[in-house]
Design brief:
Layout (H helix, E strand, L loop, with lengths): L14 H9 L3 E3 L2 H6 L30 E4 L15 E3 L14 E3 L6 E3 L2 H9 L3 E8 L19 H13 L3 E6 L10 H15 L4 E5 L19 H7 L2 E2 L6 H14 L6 E6 L26 H11 L2 E5 L3 H5 L4 H10 L28 H4 L11 E3 L5 E3 L5 E3 L19 E6 L4 E6 L9 E12 L4 E8 L7 E10 L4 E8 L5 E7 L17 E11 L12 E12 L6 E12 L6 E11 L16 E8 L2 E6 L3 E3 L9 E10 L4 E10 L13
Parallel strand pairs: 2-4, 2-11, 4-6, 6-7, 7-8, 8-9, 9-10, 10-11
Antiparallel strand pairs: 1-5, 3-14, 5-6, 12-23, 13-14, 15-16, 16-23, 17-22, 18-21, 18-23, 19-20, 19-22, 24-25, 25-28, 26-27, 26-29, 29-30
Helix pairs in contact: 4-5, 5-6
Length: 682
């Protein structure tokens, strides 16, 4: 597997960087010796994800579009903006705002073992996306035979360690990429298959193990670009395979047949698409190829997904952050073109080869990735919550702050329309979803509907919706919140609630009642139905019909849907203390507290974390100042702040539905806090 051209920031770094990276929540291992020495007791709480994976309901079009796996490899990996407690940055970087089109996310870097930063795992899990780490043995690596080492009981210690790491850091599996041959003394394809089967079994139900198409059953690296007799045994042992990127439709068809015949199944084969292949159109010594051969990858990535979707197989998109590495001034616009097929900005410079710019596939709505990628329902079978928060936001002072792990479920991306229509704009301070008109409407009555989210919430348990919103003072017509329902017979309808509070921020509670699909069946047992989406409806039959372009018709701060019977466990924050941790450059001060939880037995309870219980995160205030969020029961303090001798610390536990579930205040002493010389990270 080739890497993106950006140099790894870890290259040549020493142990001091490693210990500082721990404070950012990063975990990576460079050798088999380090892997053998790893144990849970050496893991810092900041390195663990706390957000449980939202179990997506199965959508209606699961078998019609391709599942998409993203393979990260952005800017060398483990970048500051991925830090557990957030950091101020100069520009936005890759966060992926199309997670409802993504099945799984692989965090890829060129360490032997790459554990996904908890920020990525938290955001992906919140959006229902599985997260995988990478176990890669690169060409020329030593100790590759360690993989096949067994104890007296026949157990593979490498498999055991990798499974333990996935469980402890709470991610969902591994991409196994072996690009070096084993010695002839240790090699056995059967032993490697048994290694994979053990790892898959120890990862457990609901996990995912992916074999990369490199090493063949003849013990030499030979990329097949499909599934065939040279790699099918490893794919079967792992449960799924990601092929190399130089496939053709003909090769994909042969792999499809092999997947069916072998019993692997079409859902477990992913054909690679190298986004960086478009950078090799001109002047590259080592030309990279991906489908289609002309304009493949880059802005043509969607054409590759389109080809795979037409064949009934899945896509693995390598280096999806390409637009952020090559178009710093237009990164979001280019990403929007890749995913939605929207027009590219004019005079778009490429930063990789200024004298020999690579070709760009022409913009076309038919070439967007999302057109051919499965669009998964947001939320789970009984729970949905979002505040529309992005991974990057402006503070009240104007600084740009990254908090990758805070990214929420975002609205369905909207296509540009030449005629007046509703559109979505995400805004900061505070985070909110603004509904606007795309352009000035003519002075006549008009009605517009906008779908915010795709859902599949079961109505087997009565549901309640709560929403915080604000309507502008100006009369711009009537705004309705609509909830779409669909039953097993395919009949659909809407329940709607008029939004009437004008001017100030309002909160609404609404017990959802499904519509009557057929008046003749009022006395007949209804078919099972589900909520299939949240919609905004604008009716301008009366009022100011000339809605100005850019004027906010509605601002939504958060939406939650859950069972009316949902119970929240009682919890209490205890024993807030300030501790001095680390040595040398990593010496720092850390707030630490305990969380006492009395669990509920109700099946309809909210999501629950094995680390932070009913709390999705904690807000931290010191002497009335907001200093950040914690996704663990610990928080590193920033050194550059001025601290008094006694600090009033307030910690609030925020539930997975956005509600405050616990709160505590304590006075802590800073005696000895500023002694010594050390570096502290945000």
């Amino acid at each position: 597997m080739e890497c993106s051209p950006s140099p790894s920031k870890c290259a040549g770094s020493g142990e001091s960087k490693r210990v500082l990276d721990v404070l950012k929540g990063f975990t990576y291992l460079a050798s088999f010796d380090e892997l053998q020495q790893w144990s849970e007791e050496f893991a810092d709480p900041l390195q663990r994800s706390n957000t449980p994976l939202v179990q997506r309901a199965r959508g209606d079009d699961d078998d019609e579009r391709s599942k998409v796996m993203l393979i990260h490899d952005y800017a060398g990996g483990y970048n500051d903006y991925e830090s557990a407690q957030g950091v101020e940055v100069f520009t936005e970087q890759y966060s992926c705002e199309y997670l409802q089109n993504v099945e799984s996310f692989v965090y890829f870097s060129h360490h032997l073992v790459s554990v996904p930063p908890p920020t990525w795992t938290n955001t992906c899990h919140r959006n229902g996306v599985k997260v995988l780490g990478t176990f890669i043995v690169e060409p020329g690596a030593s100790q590759v035979d360690s993989i096949l080492e067994q104890d007296d009981l026949g157990s593979y210690w490498v498999a055991r360690k990798l499974a333990c790491m996935a469980k402890h850091y709470d991610f969902d599996g591994w991409l196994v990429n072996i690009e070096a041959a084993f010695s002839i003394f240790s090699w056995s394809s059967g032993r490697l298959e048994r290694f994979l089967r053990q790892l898959r079994a120890e990862l457990g139900q609901g996990s995912q193990l992916v074999w990369y198409d490199a090493l063949t059953s003849f013990n030499f690296v030979w990329y097949q670009n499909t599934l065939n007799y040279l790699n099918v045994s490893f794919a079967l042992a792992a449960g799924s395979i990601l092929t190399n990127y130089a496939w053709t439709p003909e090769l994909a068809l042969t792999g499809k047949s092999r997947a069916i015949q072998s019993g692997l199944g079409l859902g477990n084969i992913y054909y690679g698409i190298d986004v960086y292949a478009q950078n090799s159109q001109h002047g590259s010594k080592h030309k990279r190829t991906t489908w289609p051969k002309v304009n493949g990858g880059g802005t043509g990535t969607g054409m590759g997904v389109q080809a795979l979707q037409s064949l009934g197989v899945n896509a693995g998109i390598f280096a999806p952050g390409w637009s952020y590495e090559h178009f710093s001034d237009h990164n979001r616009a280019v990403e929007k073109s890749v995913w939605q097929g929207e027009p590219l900005p004019h005079r778009l410079p490429c930063e990789c080869l200024p004298n020999k710019p690579h070709d760009l596939a022409p913009s076309d709505l038919d070439h967007g990735v999302s057109r051919y990628a499965n669009h998964f329902p947001a939320g789970s079978e009984y729970f949905f919550h979002t505040t529309f928060e992005r991974a990057f936001s402006r503070t009240t002072g104007g600084a740009l702050r990254a908090h990758l792990g805070a990214q929420q479920i975002l609205p369905i991306p909207q296509q540009s329309h030449p005629s007046p229509s509703l559109r979505v704009e995400l805004r900061d301070c505070p985070s909110r979803c603004s509904i606007l008109m795309s352009q000035v409407c003519e002075d006549h009555p008009h009605k517009h509907q906008l779908q915010l989210t795709k859902l599949k919430l079961s109505t087997a348990k009565p549901l309640r919706l709560s929403m915080t919103y604000r309507l502008p003072v100006i009369d711009l017509g009537v705004m309705w919140l609509q909830i779409g329902f669909v039953d097993q017979q395919g009949r659909s309808g809407f329940a709607q609630h008029r939004l009437s509070e004008v001017g100030s921020v309002a909160e609404m509670e609404w017990n959802l009642v499904e519509p009557v699909f057929d008046q003749h069946e009022l006395n007949v047992k209804r078919a099972i139905s589900w909520v299939d989406g949240i919609y905004i409806f604008h009716d301008c039959e009366s009022g100011n019909r000339n809605s100005p372009s850019g004027a906010a018709l509605l601002e939504i701060y958060e939406i939650t849907i859950l069972p009316q019977s949902a119970a929240r466990p009682n919890c209490e924050i205890l024993d807030i203390v300030l501790e001095k941790r680390g040595t040398g450059r990593a010496e720092h001060n850390r707030l630490v507290w305990e969380l006492d939880v009395i669990p509920e037995e109700d099946e309809a309870r909210l999501p629950y974390s094995p680390i932070t219980g009913p709390c999705a995160y904690f807000t931290i205030q010191i002497d009335g100042r907001d200093v950040g969020r914690a996704y663990a029961t610990e928080f590193v303090l920033r050194m550059e702040m001025e601290w008094a001798e006694m600090l009033e610390v307030e910690i609030g536990g925020i539930g997975f539905d956005g509600k405050i579930v616990c709160h505590a205040t304590a006075l802590v002493s800073t005696s000895g806090m500023n002694e010594g010389s050390w570096v502290l990270l945000e």
